[in-house]
Amino acid sequence: MSRPLAPEEFTARLRALSSRYWDDHPFHLRLHAGALGEHELRSWAANRWYYQRRIPQKDAAILANCPLPEVRRRWRERIAWHDGERAGEGGAENWLRMAEAVGLSRQEVLDERHVLPGVRFAVDAYVTFARTKPWVEGVASGLTEMFSRGLMARRLADMRERYPWIAEDGFAYFTSRLAVVADEGKSTLDIVVRHCRTREQQDAAVAALAFKCDVLRAILDAVDYHASGS
């Protein structure tokens, strides 16, 4: 059996997966360049909603599998952030405001009439992964947070500049998320490094993060393919 990687080696392997993140996906490049039409932005917002809606369920599955109170205490904050402490608050609510700001009605987002089969398949696979894999692999899959802050800050700046017709209230998801994502990424990495003690666990954590990167790119592949044919 291979020896466990030292923490710095393990961390480096995880960070090396940044090249598989979805920041350089062709759809995102067009989004940032201001090259998307309104119908493409609406498709993106409606399909990304399905991902946002399912994230708290993914996190709840990790909580259910985790036997450690100290980890559960930290992880449950994610559910509260997405769902809000009360109706009308939280990350999911802010994403609905984004969808409304690009021209969708709340009802057509909530009833998921625009969600593409490929997006539904990829997101549901991610939730199933969290339910069926060891809890630390579910946590490791969330390490895309390490790569997301720079992309989110760039997206906020580019969308404000390139799509000035989007009301500022529509950017609430990004402004609120930027305030927490850096700390979440560090917290998640600390948990994974501390609890992946064997080489097998470390390799599984790397594979989990690679899987999550593939899920994200599959979401955009579906949206991009639909946009090109519309």
Automatic annotation (TrEMBL):
Pathway named in the protein's UniProt entry: Cofactor biosynthesis; thiamine diphosphate biosynthesis; Cofactor biosynthesis; pyrroloquinoline quinone biosynthesis
Key words, A-Z: Oxidoreductase, PQQ biosynthesis
One record GO biological process: pyrroloquinoline quinone biosynthetic process
Group of enzyme by EC: oxidoreductase
Pfam families linked: TENA_THI-4
Record's catalysed reaction(s): 6-(2-amino-2-carboxyethyl)-7,8-dioxo-1,2,3,4,7,8-hexahydroquinoline-2,4-dicarboxylate + 3 O2 = pyrroloquinoline quinone + 2 H2O2 + 2 H2O + H(+)
GO MF assignments: pyrroloquinoline-quinone synthase activity
EC id: 1.3.3.11
Domain Thiaminase-2/PQQC: 12-221
Similarity remark: Belongs to the PqqC family.
NCBIfam families in alphabetical order: PQQ_syn_pqqC
Xref: HAMAP family: PQQ_syn_PqqC (MF_00654)
Role description: Ring cyclization and eight-electron oxidation of 3a-(2-amino-2-carboxyethyl)-4,5-dioxo-4,5,6,7,8,9-hexahydroquinoline-7,9-dicarboxylic-acid to PQQ.
Designated name of the protein: Pyrroloquinoline-quinone synthase
Source organism: Saccharothrix coeruleofusca
Source species taxonomy: Bacteria, Bacillati, Actinomycetota, Actinomycetes, Pseudonocardiales
